[in-house]
Amino acid sequence: MKINIRLVMGFACALLCACHQSPSSMGNVVSGKPDDGSRIAAAASNPSDWLSHGRGYDETRNSPLTQINTNNVGQLGLAWYYDLDTHRGQESTPLFVDGTLFTTSAWSKVQAFDGVSGKLLWAYDPQVPGEAGAKACCDVVNRGVAYWGGKVFVGTLDGRLIALDAKSGKVIWSTLTVDQSKGYTITGAPRVVKGRVLIGNGGAEFGVRGYLTAYDPDTGKLVWRFYTVPGDPGVKDGAASDAILAKVTSTWTGEWWKNGGGGGTVWDSLAYDPELDLLYVGVGNGSYWRRTLRSQGGGDNLFLASIVALRPETGEYVWHYQETPGDEWDYVATSHMILADLPIEGQMRKVLMQAPKNGFFYVLDRTNGKLISAEPYVPVNWAKGIDKTTGRPNFNPDADYAKTGKPWLAMPGALGAHDWMPMAYNPGTGYVYIPAYELGFPYVSDPNFKPMPKGVNLGVDLGALNLPDDPKVKDAVRKTVRGYLIAWDPKTQKEVWRVPQPSAWNGGVLSTSGNLVFEGNGGCEFEAFDARTGKRLWSYDVQTGVIAPPISWAKDGNQYITLVAGWGGAYPLLVGGLSWGDKGPVPNRSRVLTFSLGASGKLPDPAPEPLKPLQTPPQFADQATIALGQKAYDRTCVVCHGSGAVSGGIAPDLRYSVAIANKPYWDGVVSGGILSSKGMVSFKENFTPEEIEAIRAYVVSRAHVQAAENARQSGDK
Q1: Is residue 586 part of a domain?
Q2: Is 83 a catalytic residue?
């Protein structure tokens, strides 16, 4: 692995609170001493470290550090960088513990660095089989590690939970958390609460049943499991969820446990309140998306799109709140949750805040799950509001595309108004900072839907994403897609300011007590804003799109900002070239970057992107065959290779593949699985030989369309 490190120690340190750690914060977790969670719970009084995914159990992602502030952020420079060996989406939140920086990268790899120098201390590769990538709907990403008592915990894409020695990176134990014969993946970061390592999973689009599992951190032994949707009625799981699921089975109809598994995966957000001893779990979407397929008689389908409160030691159910009953738009409740105490209507309330995909900002009473308020933070058309008495949406009947049988252009769309990218809450300003966007989605029921053995099974026609080839139409659509950093006041449920971003797909957020907000974007910039006004104060070209959130930490009196950068994720995979903002194609140059005041390190000039020739073999099929190929492509291939066969730069752009000019090679890839080790498994179970050839004909036709457009643009010049 190539290491590129630049370190410049500049600026004598200013006196800051990071220099005055409390005695309780000085324990050396990396050395292996036991940890009871008190350091994480007391994160506000331990400003130097970043000990848990959201910094503290409350997941505020606010650093109390003030050395870097609005007055001097312009002096921020690159201290060091490290080039990663995985050029896929990078979504990791680093941890900083007693001088050591822990990160993850795509394919569930783990790295440990000396935080100040950037020296690589150790690296761990779990050797995830490439075939596992075919089960990942939204890239082969990983969002980070947890640590506890000298151990680092990581979930792997193929469904393992692994404990590593924090000093050496050696494996202590490994346990399989999923049935690998099914479409499960793990992309989320574990948490450790009260001596329980917590991990969920993904895969609802691939037909699985969701759950959260707690393991013993010393042995990897399963302690409890909570399933988020009922299984076969009358059949107990022997799990912590048995009692409550018996009560909510009535919200389901048909044979959901057979047809897609129900979904409800816990693939990202968790939060914990030590005082109330409540663990808050964000639950995902249904399997299938279309409720008429998933639960033929309708129903709310608990606990889909819900926040569920549990006892962390036992998994005992306490309460739930369902944000989108009967969800059929992929409006998950897995988006980042934040816990805070807020003055609302003259009374201090213990609240949970979430800005989920469905476009409403929710403020809940976290003691009991009751709705306090919910207001839209982006344009919303699927519901006319949230009833404050019942907590239920006032649905727009036209949004029920499965029932009406008519197409529905939803705002927000399936990627939401805010996906997994973490937001942040600054108690000093009282604002929540949301990486939001406006991105519609055309929901069209697929009347001929039949579940495929491999790939996603949604029940909707993804071919509706295809746009006419007219460049003016595409430009017009691209201009309707907007991304923002929004400052939101949760007390008043009103926007305070917003900053437009060059892309809809941007990074997670960090706020600091230096009155700063940091966010990277899809235009390859890492930026700092005034937390009170939104004024842009600093920017750095990181040479790649950013989707991960930064952190801040301190060592020896100096404050640092660390970011893992690398373009990818669901958006560019699915929509392809339309994911690019005003600057055109977004490269992936995956890196860990650390910044400090006065540093003057520089990134190397980017190497020229290798030019791959467009493949334009003779078209060999009639329009009926091409149409058949397009239908098959949109059914399975589009989720990786992009709408209209235009890649967003993550998976290969098939129009440039030599395979489309070589039928035996094409058949070897699509049917024979000769590239399985790179994630391209065989899809012979999905397609007939005629369909496989028709897909090739479709891609060849798309290459010719691009060639014609290239010629037109050349002529215009």
Answers
A1: yes
A2: no
